[in-house]
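Our platform keeps sequence and structure together, in a single record for each protein. Such a record has a labelled line for the sequence and another for the backbone structure tokens. Nothing more is needed to write down the fold, since each code stands for a local backbone conformation. For reference, a complete record is included directly beneath this paragraph:
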Amino acid sequence: MTRRVVITGIGVRAPGGTGTKEFWDLLTAGRTATRRIDFFDPGPFRSQVAGQVAFDARAEGLSPREIRRMDRATQFAIACTREAVTDSGLETGAGDPQRIGVSLGSAVASATSLESEYLVMSDAGREWLVDPAHLSPYMFDYLSPGVMPAEVAWEVGAEGPVTMVSDGCTSGLDAVGHAVQLIREGSADVMIAGATDTPISPIVVACFDAIKATTTRNDDPEHASRPFDGSRNGFVLAEGAAMFVLEEYEAARARGARIYAEVTGYATRCNAYHMTGLKKDGREMAEAIRTALDESRLDGTAIDYINAHGSGTKQNDRHETAAFKRSLGEHAYRVPVSSIKSMVGHSLGAIGSIEIAACALAIEYGVIPPTANLHEPDPECDLDYVPVTAREQRVDTVLTVGSGFGGFQSAMVLRRPEGARA
């Protein structure tokens, strides 16, 4: 018999807040946290806005040694892990450490530290031959993405399966999906899972400038992220992280854990078509949705809310609108859909996990986050995108989707467990 998997702890670090509560308060208020970049001078860049996190590593309890050793993205993951474990009430040191695992997702891993170290060694790019005498003793930690989940494993004493998942903007969904599969098959009883990314650095901003994927609405950063709006012109880069405690359902219930949601279905597909291009028919995303629904033993009419990828690029928003129609049929016109990227921006690999957190909280509190800045819908995006204002509504079943460079398309279904309070 396949084991059931539930979320019992959540930790979030996202633009506009320093924890899960502030994150949820921002979403339900429909506030935006996108601003002009102040980590460096953005003047030379095409896109100068981002979703930055007000993160104080010392206030988060990280020691000076940890701060020096860890990249900013790793620091985010540790802070979120601590919050999620505390939230779950789980005593990670009380059980068998070999039954606890970690699955962490990230698109660009320690890019922030790698760039800063290059600038030091090359004297801000002035020296073609870099001087290794100035190399950080922690350069290996920045170079090897596997160090990031290892840090999380050390934090919780996990000696079971520890994995790094990096497949672009679906990493946050896929890392949690992988963790769910490990618990289902019996390879672990508890998984610390989620994703982190801190890509607001000159090199990453320049990369997205080059392909013209990010917005040029620099004069109005608070309203620059406009998924499904006819005036949208690209996504807003962001940073952030979300981590979860996932447990086998019967064990979680036996210890009296608070259960936010059950992960009942997950699937991922690749279009094998183009690194950044998307076909208008949405076939690959629709197939991932259908497979996740089949795994959940549900049909499309069971979905109460869709958390869209909703990046704010014209091709993405049209692609997934078509995918919803293709997979859900007429029900696509009746189910509310929204994109929280309108408020917190697009944190690349981390956003899938941040959106899972929003979905679990929507089930817990009966509130659907809005799509901020949606005033003039694109006629080709003709579904109910919950414009501007959050909506109070009982939510039992949520579909969340992700789309990533490389042609990756992922979908996950979360449900209120039977008997859980509304």
User: Anything to note?
Assistant: The chain has 13 helices and 15 strands.
